[in-house]
Amino acid sequence: MLEKIENLKNDALAKIKIASSEEELKNIELEYFGRKAGKIGEILKAIPTLEPKERGAVGKNANIAKKDVEAGIAARYFEIEEEKYASLATSEKIDVTEPAINKIEKGKRHPLSKFMLECEEVFGKLGFEVAEGYEIEDDFHNFEALNFTPDHPAREMQDTFFIENEELKGYVLRTQTSDMQIRFMEENKPPYRIIAPGKVYRKDSDATHSPMFHQIECLMIDKNVSLANLRFILLSALRELIDPNVDLRFRLSYFPFVEPGLEVDALLKVDGKETWLEIGGAGMVHENVLKNVNIDPKKWNGFAFGFGIERMVMIKYGVKDLRSFFENDLRFLKQF
Ligand code: FA5
Fold first, then answer.
1. Ligand 1 neighbourhood includes 306 CB (under 6 angstroms)
2. Which domains does the chain have, with CATH numbers?
3. Which of 17, 123, 262, 274 is a good FRET partner for 147, with 20 to 30 A between their CA atoms?
4. With contact defined as beta carbons under 8 Å apart, do 188 and 116 qualify?
5. Prediction pTM value
6. CA distance 212 to 202
């Protein structure tokens, strides 16, 4: 019996040594340890039927054989795994110096982001720094400090999205980048020259209005600033940003945070004809706004203007429908 065990063990170890796959190893495991008719199991099961004096030695040797075969199988599994990974390293080797088969298309900036970056560059050259704010804004910065009293009819001018959440009661999706006039003046001392580009939201949707759109705010506060300064800065910037032949026209208008308030039109060539197009609002900062941020209006004054970025880009490239900017149609976007 002891010899039988020894032979069984040697046979098993020889088979294990030449097994070349996990599949083969599994079959060897079944042959020796399978629940039904596993060769080692059979021997262990037969022990109680042996002569009592034989049982000890057979049991001991059978257990040693069992452990040796188990250890052999585990070691061979490990080796096969190692061999598999070693062969992967050669079979799946990538030559990173090979030229690409397909041409990789590079992404580009969205025309609106591109225009906002151009604004930062052009206004930067005129001495304006960039200020950034929040799209979820409180009533104070979006309306109150900008001289909109609580029952001011002008609040109706901008169809507001109010946040319906107990924790954010009184907050809105900002309707204009003019909130940045307040935020910046609260935190800095005059003089100021800033632009604030960003997203704004209104309940508005058609070919020239979108519920989310972009504005750029410009604020200059210094000593003895006049409408002539506003005109000069705006004209210089637009001539560089849109067209060197742009001209401007101001019409009297109303915004609670400026006095006088102006609507600005730009003279542009559209389809070969010269046309005046409304591009945004402007004016001299209202003294109540300066007082709301503790700035003495007798010492300081200035102008502000705010423009729709979509409107500017539509004018610059002759885009007819503002919704094209948000449809993510590559045929449209690739033109810029
Ligand atoms: C304002 O938002 C003022 N805050 C501008 C301002 C700033 C005036 C500083 C004075 C001083 P208004 O509501 O007119 O103004 O909007 C300005 C521009 O945003 C518009 O001329 C238009 O180009 C653009 N705009 C307004 N609503 C939409 C919309 N729903 N979709 C796309 N563009 C819009």
1. yes
2. 2-89 (no CATH), 111-333 (3.30.930.10)
3. 123
4. no
5. 0.72
6. 7
